[in-house]
Amino acid sequence: MVVKSRVLRSATNGELHSSVTPEEKPKRAKVATRGRKNVKAAAVKGDAEEPSPSPQRRTSARIQIKQLAEKELLVRQRVELPDETDSPSKRTKKNGPLRSKRNTKSKDKAVEDKAVAVPVSNDVTNSKDGGASEPEVCALEKSTTADEGGLANVVEKSDHAKVKETLRLFNKYYLHFVQEEEQRCKKAEVAQKASKGSKSKKVAPEEDTKSKRKRPDLKAITKMMEANEILNPEKRIGNIPGISIGHRFYSRAEMVAVGFHSHWLNGIDYMGLSYSKMVIQYWAEKGISGFTVFKFRLRRIEGQSLLTTNQVQFVYGRVPKSVSEIRGLVCEDITGSQEDIPIPATNLVDDQPVAPTGFTYCKSIKVGHGVKLPSNANGCDCRGSCISSRTCSCAKLNGLDFPYVHRDGGRLIEAKDVVYECGPNCGCGPGCVNRTSQRGIKYRLEVFRTPKKGWAVRSWDFIPSGAPVCEYTGVLSRTDDLDHVSENNYIFDIDCLQTIRGFGGRMRRSRDASLLPNNSADGIDDQRSESVPEFCVDACSTGNIARFINHSCEPNLFVQCVLSSHHDIKLARVVLFAAENIPPLQELTYDYGYALDSVYGSDGKIKQMPCFCGATECRKRLF
Ligand SMILES: C[S@@+](CC[C@H](N)C(=O)[O-])C[C@H]1O[C@@H](n2cnc3c(N)ncnc32)[C@H](O)[C@@H]1O
């Protein structure tokens, strides 16, 4: 059997809610907010301070406006905004039709309406750069669906897919703007150095660029608002389709992207009086640190099931703090110290737990018999680190840009046909951003035993979208040479051309302007008939952690062909990247990319293998 490469697909499942019945209030209200980390917004602060049963204190409209303005000012001091004097109304106008529509009720109008604030949102003080900060766990309730099959399933399926797609789109925009920001900073740095050298005080880079500065996450959100790409733009009370309990958001902006928050800044949102029947009671109190704390007593929506602490906090389990804490440890390091970070194996499944055996760990590709690697390509002339995409010849191959951003040790901005990295003949050093996938494994991975899929892989660390996880290593072989092998579950065909063209039901990638140095896009299409992969990586007897990564119909990794030393796409390196923000302990998976009924046994009959990925959109078969 052949394990084939694949591209990303869609998301996780579920729905949510935010209310509690008055009787259940003290316990569950606490649960509902405790899962949300990094929470300093007024509504959530209320969590730390048990809602008081004392008489309700109403706050006048004037005071409410003042408090909101104070809060906004406070937040604006903590995050860098492009124009310090911009008023909220001015910003609304800038943000396009959708934003305008959603903000048609200004704060003043809300107060006129005697609007009831609803704690749709939480933290107002996210990380300064808006990047992957502390995750925010969805502490909301999964609603029960009366009809578990048929149509209901279809609706649910597409909701989850939409959430996943929206978050991926957001992360793509986000990384594009991160790149823009990194380039701006670099320019400013260079200009500053130049101005230090010269006596004239003509350049004031900080001042010069300050007006252009804006957080990449906010830019991404603005872009999505302008393009009407925000999911669930209408405010609502109750569950948001496609988001399950325990879903982790990694920035406030992600929550805005899926419609969980309607504003990236405000901690508390409001809805008109018509919704007042949902809020039993609200009041304001002085919190322990002097802030005004708004508290809300919400009514549980009819039919909504109970929410438990487990659902909110322990969806993925607990990350061990040391080797002694690892349950079911069967091997301390399957890599035999080859990787910088040990990879333990655990087995809590078998009665007599054993470690993975039958292979030799090898962190890099071994060139097999009958395979000759092409000579190294000419490199770029950059020094130290590649900075200018206009002068770096490797950047030119990537469509006149670097495919990675520096953030988090290097993240791929988006999946590409091929990524051209700097190689042995390049003038830059190992720290160059365009060598991101060559730096080895940087997350704490674990091989663990599953009941139905054999071994599997997960990470103890959060993995941000676009981060390289590992290369698929093994013996680089000719596919013809392995044709006679009947049972080998660890062969990865190097089928970049199929990936590029979207063959076999695969998602076609957006065409890269600079595709291959000597091949036009048409040239690649011409090779359609010759697209049977000539080479593969066989990880059966020799391989690395990638050989343990299972297939999923809704994967969180994607396969990226990378060329770093030579430029022969038939022998490209196969690297697995995070397709989305991956929370700790979630199984790492990619789509093996089999077309159904495409695998034949030695008897000439179609072979089938059941899929146990457990995804809502599972095809039920691997092939
Ligand atoms: C590359 S190996 C993955 C690691 C493997 N689970 C192991 O124990 O070594 C591929 C094999 O894992 C199993 N596998 C992977 N994903 C699966 C899935 N979604 N459902 C069922 N089996 C799966 C199949 O036996 C497949 O041929």
Automatic annotation (TrEMBL):
Record Gene3D superfamilies: SET domain, SRA-YDG
Organism domain of life: Eukaryota
Presence of the UniProt keyword Transferase in the record: yes
Database matches in InterPro entries: H3K9_HMTase_SUVAR3-9, Post-SET_dom, Pre-SET_dom, PUA-like_sf, SET_dom, SET_dom_sf, SRA-YDG_sf, SRA_YDG
Sequence ranges assigned to domain SET in this UniProt record: 443-593
SMART domains named in the record: PostSET, PreSET, SET, SRA
Skewed-composition ranges (Basic and acidic residues): 105-115
The keyword Electron transport is assigned to this record: no
Domain Post-SET: 607-623
Main location: nucleus
Keywords: Chromosome, Methyltransferase, Nucleus, S-adenosyl-L-methionine, Transferase
Composition-biased stretches (Basic residues): 27-39, 90-104
Residue ranges with Polar residues bias: 10-21
One Pfam family of this chain: SAD_SRA
MF (Gene Ontology): double-stranded DNA binding; histone methyltransferase activity; zinc ion binding
Record's subcellular location: Chromosome, Centromere
GO biological process: methylation
Residue stretches making up the Pre-SET domain: 378-440
Gene Ontology cellular-component annotations: chromosome, centromeric region; nucleus
UniProt region (Disordered), positions on chain: 1-62, 75-134, 190-217
Annotated protein name in UniProt: Histone-lysine N-methyltransferase, H3 lysine-9 specific SUVH4-like isoform X3
